[in-house]
Amino acid sequence: MMNEFPVDCRPLTVENLDDLLNFMETDAFSDNPRWRGCYCVFHYLSDERDGDWTIRSCSDNRTALTRMVEDKRGHWIVAYGEGRIVGWVNADIGTRLKRYDEWGVRVDPATGIVACFVVDPRLRLRGIARQLLNAAVEALWASGVKNVDAYVTTDPKALSESEKELGPDQLAHHGPLAMYLKVGFEVIEQKGAMSHVRLKTPANRDSGE
């Protein structure tokens, strides 16, 4: 890793939403423009409730993000560096992330999930995702969860054919396994292409739950 790029991690609010939208629509997906229209609402939606994701418009997703931030129905943390947003993480109470229900993941209400990261392509491998992960864990603990989970791509050979078309940076949008292990997560299950990792809160670890 190159020299760490220090960032100031803050919750996404209506006050800094325009900063995030500007980042999303310019630098964030400069190397992967087909994901630009996600607006980081994918994990909150389900095809059954919200319609087929593949035919949703960029405008629909932008509006959904704006409304969720205004209504405080989602949780994102943004990273500021040198006066601008350079990355973000989506991490929330797992039961709010409806896409996991669709995938058959049974999420306990006391479990938070770190869903995805995006970092400015010019600043990757500079420790920004790790700083965001630490901020996300602290925020989830403050919300009262007992565990923080993530689902990380660890076996690209087991991916679907469409997923295999993604580049290494896109496959790492859940965050690399080594980053999670370094801050104390443990692998609790390997299934297909993914590893399920978990970090217990200090109180939960001490209780042996």
TrEMBL record:
<dbReference type="GO" id="GO:0016747">
    <property type="term" value="F:acyltransferase activity, transferring groups other than amino-acyl groups"/>
</dbReference>
<dbReference type="InterPro" id="IPR000182">
    <property type="entry name" value="GNAT_dom"/>
</dbReference>
<feature type="domain" description="N-acetyltransferase">
    <location>
        <begin position="7"/>
        <end position="204"/>
    </location>
</feature>
<dbReference type="Pfam" id="PF00583">
    <property type="entry name" value="Acetyltransf_1"/>
</dbReference>
<dbReference type="InterPro" id="IPR016181">
    <property type="entry name" value="Acyl_CoA_acyltransferase"/>
</dbReference>
<protein>
    <recommendedName>
        <fullName>N-acetyltransferase domain-containing protein</fullName>
    </recommendedName>
</protein>
